[in-house]
Specification:
Elements (H helix, E strand, L loop, with lengths): L1 H8 L15 H5 L8 H4 L1 H7 L1 H5 L1 H9 L4 H12 L1 H23 L21 H6 L6 H6 L15 H11 L13
The structure holds zinc ion (2 copies).
Length: 183
């Protein structure tokens, strides 16, 4: 999360954006993960760039133990369908999810259309990346208004994450949901 905020603060800056697309597709897609970058992995840095989340007990817990959560899921999958369920439900699913997420740092900073040309980076709206990531692929919209909960602004910009936020909002589970400015 701290890395994500640095990405917004210094978008595509070769030094300060942890996954700057100007360093090439593979760097922004996954190579950045294989180099020691304190702003991405160091807890002290979380405090600086994401102090709100660094203080939150739930996120502290999740940061420490998210890998362990896979263990009960693995046991459940094994009970349901043996090793093939574990392979597809854990390993294959995780790898597909990683690459889908990484496409937002790589592909949507390289190809697609722009609804907000005034945004001073190369972020783009990319329909197939949006489908893979439940809406995150409307990345030019997101860079134009990073604090707005909705990423798909046009009727054709399918954003299923927004549908979930909307449902949570009507159930009273999501508060302070930031909407796009009225045009
Ligand atoms: Zn971006
Ligand atoms: Zn973002």
């Amino acid at each position: 999360m701290a890395g994500h905020r640095k990405h917004h603060l210094h978008t595509e800056d070769i030094e300060n954006d942890p996954y700057s697309a100007r360093r090439g597709f593979w760097w922004s897609h996954m190579l950045w993960l294989f180099y020691v970058q304190p702003q991405v992995f160091d807890r002290q840095q979380y405090q600086k760039f994401a102090p709100d989340l660094g203080r939150d007990r739930f996120y502290q817990w999740l940061d420490r133990y998210h890998l362990l959560l896979q263990v009960p899921l693995g046991v459940l999958l094994y009970a349901m369908g043996g090793w093939s369920f574990v392979l597809y439900g854990l390993a294959v699913r995780s790898v597909v999810l990683w690459h889908s997420t990484w496409l937002i740092n790589s592909a949507t900073h390289m190809t697609g259309y722009r609804s907000f040309d005034e945004v001073e980076d190369n972020s783009r709206n990319l329909w197939w990346a949006a489908l893979l990531t439940y809406g995150e692929g409307w990345h030019n919209n997101h860079h134009a208004y990073p604090n707005v909960a909705k990423a798909g602004w046009q009727w054709w910009e399918i954003d299923s994450t927004w549908w979930v936020i909307k449902a949570m909002k009507s159930a009273g589970l999501a508060k302070k949901v930031v909407m796009p400015p009225a045009t």
